[in-house]
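Structure in, sequence out. Go:
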């Protein structure tokens, strides 16, 4: 007896095509839908329960030139508008400025405080990602592109508008105070420098004054000594002249006595006396020779000698002595030295200090109202946002549904694949049994 039973092997790869794929997905459509609904529900729960986050922005631009004109015209501190914007930007990025604002406005940062945290730790949480500063590309040379943009992201329950606007104002005030402090130090240093130059000028003036007084006094001493020496020499000369005159008078008196000349006479009269002739002739004598002194006669000569012997001083005989006496009298007091010593305000006589005094007066009268100094222009203030930037509920829901669909399909495919593998194993077992039964029948045939 022969059997015609044929068992066809099951080819898993041939059966597992697109038809089986779609068939498996359709058979698991409920599972896929359930996964989509579950993941979508979880996404909706997250989207509606997560804390919303908001974002506010503010824009700063350079101030107008006239706002900084008073500071720049002071010739003490130069600050162009672009440089002022950079300084404010550095203050906004400064850790100390941010920490100072955090400390001074703790009522605005209660949401960042946690039990067991220090103030600095709470500030670190705020400072980590809350405020971001954006500046233009430095390679751009366009002045219109100069700006500083600040963005602050904060959770619901935080007054981000007040924080950002307050922080900008705090940073501007801090930079304004720093500029005022720098200006004060510069002015103080310049005044100290000017005072040092004035002190040096005073010292130089005092030295020049003392040197001038010393020179004048020395000149007076020298002149006085010279006059006194001259006076002494003149008096000695006059005394010698008087002695010589007395000696000359003594000789002339002796000669006059020997000639019997009692009265002043001439050579002609002396000759007439010798000849004892009388005449009514009047002679006129012209002689260019000096008449000897004894012709003055004994009486005149003795009278002159007596007067010279009785003279106590010869000063009156020389005009120069009177002039020396006058000069010595003038040298008793030097009026120029007296004026130099009696100067009340000696600063008036300092030389080359007028520019220094002018600069000193200008610096002392410098009164800039730093409270009104406008370093930057707040082009845009932070305003209350209309809606949060996070979470994006629609995007989260769509992402959840897509993720749920993908996850459901993957689960369905995995389930179908497991079911197909199990069926294939069963088919292989059944095929093995039929092969064993068919073999004896073939032998019998």
């Amino acid at each position: 007896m022969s059997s015609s039973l044929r068992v066809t092997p099951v080819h898993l790869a041939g059966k597992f095509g697109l038809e089986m794929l779609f068939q498996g997905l359709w058979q698991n459509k409920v599972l896929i839908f359930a996964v989509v609904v579950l993941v979508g529900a979880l996404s909706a729960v997250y989207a509606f329960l997560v804390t919303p986050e908001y974002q506010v922005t503010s824009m700063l631009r350079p101030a107008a030139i006239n706002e900084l004109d008073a500071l720049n015209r002071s010739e003490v501190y130069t600050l162009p508008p672009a440089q002022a914007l950079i300084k404010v930007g550095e203050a906004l990025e400064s850790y100390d400025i941010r920490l100072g604002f955090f400390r001074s406005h703790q009522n605005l940062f209660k949401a960042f405080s946690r039990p067991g945290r220090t103030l600095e730790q709470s500030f670190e949480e705020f400072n980590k990602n809350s405020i971001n500063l954006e500046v233009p590309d430095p390679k751009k040379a366009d002045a219109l592109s100069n700006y500083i943009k600040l963005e602050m992201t904060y959770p619901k329950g935080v007054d981000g508008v007040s924080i950002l606007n307050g922080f900008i104002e705090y940073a501007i005030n801090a930079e304004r105070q720093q500029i005022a402090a720098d200006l004060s130090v510069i002015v103080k240093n310049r005044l100290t420098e000017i005072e040092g130059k004035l002190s040096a000028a005073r010292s130089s003036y005092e030295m020049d004054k003392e040197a001038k007084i010393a020179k004048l006094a020395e000149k007076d001493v020298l002149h006085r000594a010279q006059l006194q020496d001259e006076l002494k020499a003149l008096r000695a000369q006059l005394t010698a002249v008087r002695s010589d005159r007395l000696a000359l008078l003594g000789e002339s008196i002796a000669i006059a006595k020997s000639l019997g000349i009692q009265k002043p006479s001439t050579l002609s009269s002396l000759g007439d006396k010798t000849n004892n002739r009388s005449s009514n002739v009047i002679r006129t004598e012209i002689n260019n020779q000096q008449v000897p002194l004894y012709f003055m006669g004994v009486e005149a000569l003795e009278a002159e000698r007596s007067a010279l012997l009785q003279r106590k001083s010869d000063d009156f005989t020389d005009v120069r002595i009177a002039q020396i006496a006058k000069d010595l009298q003038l040298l008793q007091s030097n009026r120029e030295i007296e004026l130099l010593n009696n100067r009340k305000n000696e600063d008036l006589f300092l030389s080359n200090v007028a520019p220094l005094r002018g600069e000193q007066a200008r610096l002392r009268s410098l009164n800039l109202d730093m409270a009104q100094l406008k370093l930057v222009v707040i082009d845009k203030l932070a305003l209350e946002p209309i809606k949060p930037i996070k979470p994006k509920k629609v995007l989260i829901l769509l992402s959840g549904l897509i993720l749920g669909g993908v996850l459901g399909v993957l689960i369905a495919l995995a389930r179908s694949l497991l079911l197909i593998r199990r069926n294939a194993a069963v088919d292989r077992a059944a095929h093995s049994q039929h092969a064993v039964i068919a073999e004896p029948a073939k032998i019998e045939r």
